[in-house]
Design goal:
By secondary structure, the protein is an alpha+beta fold. A hairpin with a 2-residue loop joins strand 5 and strand 6.
Length: about 130
């Protein structure tokens, strides 16, 4: 009986981790991507999703949910240059520019995980 229970538990654990990765917390390296524009919305930030390797372009960063000790880390410069790995989620949030409504990706940061590696900052304009 224990031989048949172990594979079932493994399958359940894999399914749970796949569901969590799809809509749950992730790890991202946000930074300035070097693009500038004259009319909003401006896609001047991007974030590398470390789980998928996908670069989310035009993302804004909401640091309001970070613990106070993380906010005190000279964070703006680190986010600009892609120097930290941020835990959080990407949400499409409404933003209004010049009277027009846009749904734009927002990285909702919940914590700072660690310093980013050089290889993880490859999509940043400032390294």
């Amino acid at each position: 009986m224990t031989k048949s229970v172990a594979p079932a538990l493994l399958i359940a654990a894999l399914c749970l981790s796949a569901e969590t990765g799809a809509g749950g917390q992730g790890s991202y390296v946000p930074c300035d991507n070097g693009l500038r524009c004259v009319m909003a919305p401006c896609p001047s930030n991007s974030a590398l999703d470390l789980a998928s390797g996908k670069i989310i372009k035009g993302v804004s960063i909401d640091i309001g949910g970070l613990p106070q000790q993380d906010k005190a880390l000279d964070l703006q410069d680190k986010l600009y240059a892609g120097k930290v790995v941020v835990a959080g989620t990407i949400e499409n949030r409404p933003h209004t520019f010049n009277g027009k409504q846009y749904s734009l990706p927002t990285l909702v940061a919940t914590g700072i995980e660690r310093a980013a590696k050089d290889s993880e900052r490859g999509h940043c304009s400032v390294r």
